[in-house]
Amino acid sequence: MPTDTARITALDTYDVRFPTSRSLDGSDAMNPDPDYSAAYLVLRTDAGDGLEGHGFTFTIGRGNDVQVAAIEALRGHVVGRSVSDLCADPGSLNRDLIGDSQLRWLGPEKGVMHMAIGAVVNAVWDLAAKRAGRPLWRLLAEAEPQWLVSQVDFRYLTDALTPDEALTLLERARDGRAERAGTLLARGYPAYTTSPGWLGYSDEKLTRLAKEALADGFTQIKLKVGADLSDDLRRCRAARAAIGPDVRMAIDANQRWDVADAIAWTNALAEFDPYWIEEPTSPDDILGHAAVRTAVAPVKVATGEHVQNRIVFKQLLQAGAIDVLQLDATRVGGVNENLAILLLAAKFGVPVCPHAGGVGLCELAQHLSMFDFIALSGTTQDRVLEYVDHLHEHFVTPTVVRDGHYRAPTTPGFSAQMHPESIAAYVYPGGTFWSTELEEQS
Q1: Please, are residues 352 and 106 in contact by the beta-carbon 8 Å criterion?
Q2: Per the UniProt record, which residue ranges are transmembrane (predicted)?
């Protein structure tokens, strides 16, 4: 049998920005005018099969140029590597990227460099799934538990989760995997929607979109809060009137509050029966989250989209600081680290409801939730995946949500690939959209 000599020949980057601030899509108390953006990359090979690895990390505008530069800094670790070796063991690249001591100094394992690592690692997983001819959720769900454990970096975790414990969790879930896969393909994975709740929307738009969400089959919506209490009281009242008493309504402060403010504000909104309060304070404040959780019960505390790595998630779980874990597909070091986070959540019995409010995050996060259902937690009880109805048209295999459920992707890959036309239009500053805009402003 001939040796596979194909190599990674290029890592190409793109600064892709969408002008969502103009319609206030994505607006919240901390981020009033975000431009949803993707620091995007493509791995190209000389395999001759036409397959590429696509990955990105999510930003909200001007930070994209910094994020793209960080991805560029990793090129030397990737170009020239064996395609077959890389796809057989993405963890090898993950370890090399995290282990670059001079770049690690900028973290370690946090911030812009760690997000860049996640983008590159996710692109490798996209390529691996395409070469395997399977969507990523299926590639992961059908993998041998021992191999999955080999993909996880357990450094700094073994006081809470050992490799043997992780293997036990995965082995325990083997029974029923086929039946759960059948259920997933037939019904999909439960979703909730944030689309009605952006802070910049009028009460009329909020009410209209909330009613539409119910008609579309959603059983949970989410509202942004935290800028002005009187506005929040009015908006929560309008939303609860629109959806009735039986539909869950989560609220999200996007880190706006100090601990005392978080407690007082959440309790002031308790009359509207919020299901959870999301990001009530700094994502780094583990003890603060624990204090909020004690003081606002029975309202649940959720966080994770800005939690920088598996070690902080470990401590949130150890401290009993959260009721709902919200991992992000692009904030941490890619699929490998998210496997660690999913295993930690399973060990502590905390449901995972991923963050997906951003360009392409719905496309990626669905694979992680579906893997978790089939091959780890084995349940969708109290688990919902965020959905926002923005920018899916730019992806080759966009997310499909029907009757309040994500339909399981069937196309090989990680659903990360954008249309070339979208990149050509929205790459900054030279894309057709932005060059026209900048010319008109000059």
Answers
A1: no
A2: none
3-class SS of residue 413: strand
Task: Reply yes or no on whether 224 is catalytic.
Answer: yes
Rounded distance between C-alpha atoms, residue 136 and residue 128, angstroms = 8
Statement: residue 101 has pLDDT above 70: yes
Could you say which of 114, 222, 224, 390 is catalytic? 224
- Tokens 């490998």, residue? 336
Give me 17's structure tokens: 């920005």
Residue at 140: amino acid letter: L
Considering just the CA atoms, what is the radius of gyration of the chain in Å? 21
Closest CA to 402 of 218, 226, 271: 218
Kindly give, in sequence order, each residue whose CB lies less than 8 Å from that of residue 415, ignoring residues fewer than 6 positions away: 135, 136, 363, 364, 366, 367, 395, 397, 398, 399, 409
CB 339 within 8 A of CB 329: no
- pTM for this model (two decimals): 0.97
Domains of the chain: 8-133 (3.30.390.10), 177-421 (3.20.20.120)
d(CA 264, CA 241): 23
Tokens describing residue 128 = 């691996």
CB atoms within 10 A of CB 429: 11
- 405 assigned to active site: no
List the beta strands (DSSP E) in 60-204. Answer: 189-197
What is the share, in percent, of the chain residues with pLDDT greater than 90?
94
Alpha carbon distance 324, 308 (integer Å): 16
Of 54, 222, 300, 355, the active-site residue reads: 355
SS3 content of the chain, % helix, strand, coil (to 5): 45, 15, 40
Q: Which residues pair with 38 in a beta bridge?
A: 16, 58
pLDDT per residue as tens digits for the range 66-94: 999 999 999 999 999 999 999 999 999 99
Q: Is the dihedral of CA 381, 192, 282, 66 positive or negative?
A: positive
